[in-house]
Design goal:
171 residues; alpha+beta; 63% helix; elongated
Length: 171
């Protein structure tokens, strides 16, 4: 095996759980973004000679970000009469993804849990996610809680988008 590949595999084995979670969050969000691109491209219905431009240039992630794609997706759904169950989950997806992608993960928080006599009973050591939301708010949450919430939001969105893709295929 190539030495560079061995080194890369070795480096992957040293990733922390926080780094693995962040990678998973970004990969899942990228998958959702790819599905949104399919829906938008289908709506535009470019000629065969313009399909490459629409799919690979116009809708490329560096040209139109995920937030903009979600807005376009909402617009298409409204025109087509496709019901979106809960638009807030899409905004949560963006906030959680940005929290994992850009939050500092180097500091651990420690909470001492006291009993009713104010004697230390337990210690909770955890990492946090912090982010500035699209509405201008700031939040800091336990990383494990945000990861769990992201997983739930992600499944809701993937189910909804897959149902819309099925409608497109069957039309």
């Amino acid at each position: 095996m190539n030495k560079k590949i061995k080194k890369y595999q070795s480096d992957l084995n040293t990733l922390t759980i926080e780094e693995k979670e962040a990678g998973w969050v970004i990969c899942e969000t990228n998958h959702i973004e790819k599905q949104l691109k399919k829906i938008i491209s289908h709506y535009i219905q470019p000629d065969i000679d313009k399909r490459h431009f629409v799919d690979n240039i116009l809708l490329h992630n560096t040209n139109i970000n995920l937030g903009a794609k979600i807005k376009v997706f909402f617009y298409i759904c409204k025109l087509k009469g496709w019901k979106i169950e809960n638009k807030d989950v899409y905004h949560k997806l963006l906030n959680y993804r940005n929290g994992f992608a850009h939050s500092d993960v180097t500091t651990k928080k420690v909470d001492v849990i006291f009993d009713e006599n104010r004697k230390p009973k337990d210690v909770d050591i955890y990492m946090t996610i912090n982010n500035v939301t699209y509405s201008g708010g700031f939040y800091e949450e336990k990383r494990s809680k945000v990861f769990q919430e992201f997983s739930s939001v992600c499944e809701q969105i993937k189910t909804e988008i897959n149902n819309i893709l099925l409608k497109i295929e069957n039309s």
